[in-house]
Every structure is written in C-alpha cells, then in structure tokens.
Amino acid sequence: MKATDLLTRARALLLDFDGPVCSVFAGIPASTVADQLRDVLADGGHTDLPDAVATSTDPFDVLQHAAMLGEDEGRYVEAAFTAHEVEAISSASPASGAHDLIDAWHGSGRPLAIVSNNGTRAISAYLDLYGLRSSINFVSARTSANTTLLKPSPYLLHQAITALDVSLGEAVFLGDSTTDIEAAQAAGVRSIGYANKPGKDYRLTAAGADAVTDALTGLATVV
C-alpha cells in the first residue's frame, strides 16, 4: 500500500518527532550529548560502563543504562538529557515538507499527535519556535527516566490514541526508525516508514511498515 493511500484513509495522524518533524541534533551532535550524559554518570561514580554504553553515540543508550543503575541515576541523567534536548531545539533542522504536512492535516479537521521518545519540554519548545502548537492536538512523549514506557513499547502510541479519541484502526503512525515500526505493530496501528537515509527503506519494510516513503514533500497535497 502507498503512504498516500494510508494518509487519505486515516482519521488521525501520529508523528514521530526526531526525523519526521525535524533533526533534533542537527546543530549539537547526538554523540556529544551521549558523552555529556556519561559525564553525569561519572560524577556519580559510575565510570566502569559496559562497552556498548561507553562507546555508544546514542544518548538513549546511556539513559537506559542509567535507569537500570538506579532511580537517582536515571533521574539525574534524564534531567541532563532533557536540558540538552531543549538547548538543541534552537539549531534543530526542520524536515522538508514536515510543517506543510502538519498544517494540511490540521486544516483537514482531523487530529494529530506527536509520539516521541524525546522529552515533552523539547517538543514544546520546537512547536512554540515554529508556531505549530495550535496544529498539534496532543504530545505523547518522554516525561521521566522510565525507559520501559518508550518505543518500541506501545505505551506512548496507546496514550495518544486514547487522547485523540479514535480507534486503533483509524490511526496511522509515521516514523523513521525500526523502533517506531515495532511500536506501531505492538500497538496495533498501521505505520508509514520514513526512509530519510539510504538503506532505511529496506530496514523499515523488513520491520513490517505498511508503507514506506522517502520524502514528506508532497504528502500535504493528499490530506
């Protein structure tokens, strides 16, 4: 099925944030944030990290490990992560066609939710920066260090579905990672994979995406 067909039939649109809406760490590399989160752990005496955590360029890997170490560690690292995300918003790069899609969907009278592992404060900062808040009906995103609630768990998707007051079959989720697609499958929601980098189309298809698109530009015209 084509992405345009799924969008035309859907009553509600769920959008991942980092990727389909913008590149959060376009100005501040995610690897730099990961290093800074490791510094938070080191300040708390946690210097002997597993190799996968010590070398990861993904801040979420560090957050997940911190949450496993203990409640305080998770809380401190999550707070630092949130601060870095908010700082990064000023240099975040909007995805081509994303704002047009959001505006067109809102104009159609159908509800739209952001569903993201990023923090709610950073997402709110971005929506305010670009005047998009009135076009978004709900934000379902990270509010704590409890990483078990984050995608690929279906929790955030189910929270958004409930808030928008639609059925699972009436919504479509657009995300750019295999984790997004896995979360959609676990939630029972149809998904569109956004292949914004070479090779992603194969991975997203293999993960079970109902449709894959390599561009958001033009999608606004079908909603």
Question: What is the helical fraction, as a range of percent?
Answer: 40-55%
Shape: globular
Report how far the terminal alpha carbons are from each other. Answer: 16 Å
Number of strands: 8
Mean pLDDT: 97
Uncertain segments: none
Strand content: 15-25%
**What series of H and E elements makes up the topology?**
HEEHHHHEHEHEHEHEHE
Any idea what the radius of gyration is?
17 Å
The number of helical segments is 10
Overall SS class:
alpha/beta
Biggest sheet strand line-up = 5-4-1-6-7-8
For the biggest sheet, the summary is: 6 strands, parallel
Write up what this structure looks like.
The chain is of the alpha/beta class and 223 residues long. 46% of the residues lie in helices and 15% in strands. The chain is built from 10 helices and 8 strands. The protein has helices spanning 3-9, 30-43, 51-54, 59-69, 71-89, 98-107, 120-129, 155-164, 178-187, 200-207; strands spanning 12-15, 22-23, 93-94, 112-119, 138-142, 171-175, 190-194, 211-213. The strands form 2 sheets. Strands 5-4-1-6-7-8 form a 6-stranded parallel beta sheet, sandwiched between helices. α2 (30-43) runs parallel beside α4, α2 (30-43) packs antiparallel against α5 (71-89) and α4 (59-69) packs antiparallel against α5 (71-89).
Give a short summary of the structure:
By secondary structure, this protein is of the alpha/beta class. 46% of the residues lie in helices and 15% in strands. Helix 2 (30-43) packs parallel to helix 4 (59-69), helix 2 packs antiparallel against helix 5 and helix 5 (71-89) runs parallel beside helix 7 (120-129).
